[in-house]
Design brief:
The protein has 8 helices and 6 strands; from the N terminus they run H-H-E-E-H-E-H-E-H-E-H-H-E-H. Helix 3 crosses helix 4 and helix 5 packs across helix 7. It is 43% helix and 16% strand.
Length: 195
């Protein structure tokens, strides 16, 4: 007997994607999504939310880690060339706006352009803030989608640390967490086991 498909799963299949579905009973949705995404070696994980049309995508960056995967993913997602992509970097410590632009935003923008995103659709921003999470939540409210990269050293924690949870709880927009490549994930897992 074939597995029943949700409407969203059917839409992905109709677009040519390979879809695996699971029926899971859980008390913690984010923990289950995290566990299944690791078990299935997912490249990215969607935390659903309503979106009518994809016009503005927010990509918060802590650094240039995972930018290659994020750039390819965002370029595929925005291939029709109509969505604006906002790269946002929260300044850390004594970091300056100029350093942020040179070390994080410009290299990330170059990756985005190389992946196929038109330069005119990219917006680069750096912001000084006491609370990076609150700032990202604030910016997320003005966008249709948030794309995050894994940020923690532990594979068990990378997908759903405090940032995605705070965004999910505060703003009703979908979030995609783009996972590190397998090699980076294995290194992170080894580092966690050494602790």
């Amino acid at each position: 007997m074939p597995k029943p498909r949700t409407r969203s799963a059917r839409r992905f299949e109709e677009a040519g994607a390979e879809v695996t579905t699971r029926l899971v009973f859980t008390g913690d949705e984010l923990d289950t999504i995290s566990r299944v995404s690791v078990e299935e070696s997912c490249d990215a994980v969607l935390i659903p939310g309503p979106v009518e049309q994809l016009r503005r995508v927010l990509v918060p960056l802590r650094g240039i880690q995972n930018v290659r995967e994020i750039a390819r993913f965002v370029a595929d997602l925005c291939q029709d060339g109509t969505a604006r992509v906002t790269l946002l970097h929260i300044l850390e410590g004594d970091e300056t706006t100029a350093a942020s632009r040179e070390d994080v935003l410009e290299p990330a923008a170059e990756r985005m352009r190389s992946a196929g995103i038109e330069a005119g659709l990219l917006e680069l921003n750096s912001v000084a803030a006491d609370s990076p999470a609150d700032t990202i939540v604030e910016w997320a409210g003005e966008h249709d989608l948030v794309v995050l990269g894994e940020t923690q050293p532990s594979v068990r924690e990378v997908l759903f640390g405090t940032m995605p949870e705070q965004i999910v709880e505060a703003v009703n927009v979908p979030i995609i967490v783009v996972r590190h490549g397998e090699e980076a994930a294995e290194m992170a897992e080894r580092a966690t086991q050494a602790d």
